[in-house]
Amino acid sequence: MSSIHSYKGIRPFIGENTYVDPSSVLVGDIYLDDDVSIWPMVAARGDVNSIKIGARSNIQDGTVLHVTHKSESNPDGYPLTIGDDVTVGHKAMLHGCTIGHRVLVGMGTLILDNAIIEDDVMVGAGSLVPPGKVLESGFLYVGSPVKQVRPLTNKERNFLSYSAAHYVRLKNEYIAETNE
Fold first, then answer.
1. How confident is the model at residue 178 (pLDDT cuts 50, 70, 90)?
2. 9, 11, 68, 143 - which has most CB atoms within 10 Å?
3. Quick one: CA dihedral 76, 42, 39, 27, positive or negative?
């Protein structure tokens, strides 16, 4: 049984050299750019709005990705947009938010409707990003609700790209294994 499903005639788009673990489920209006990795038990529902995941981003085990529907009071709803080179840690929940490029979302983090995470940000494990909150580029954020803690170090900034590249290498190993 396939883990990739159409909804109202719209099927997820899977980019080149992308890995989707068979135990994950992708439904509807989802766009996965090249070199994306979707790890075990990820649930992504692009049923009432769209989900877009940028190149080289990785969505780790048990993460839930969803969106907010369009309505009279919110004509565009809230799609979910994830930039390039993003690492989303295990069991995160991203709902109708915008994630920039080179972002690390820590394990168990909740990011809610209309929150915006700018480029080059680390969000610590177990954090809660409330609806409409903007996390400014270049900082570490932690807590529930999330608070800006300090600027990222050069080592941390470099780790953002390193993490994405590491998961590209790992998913390439998984793809090679399944093609043997």
1. confident
2. 68
3. negative
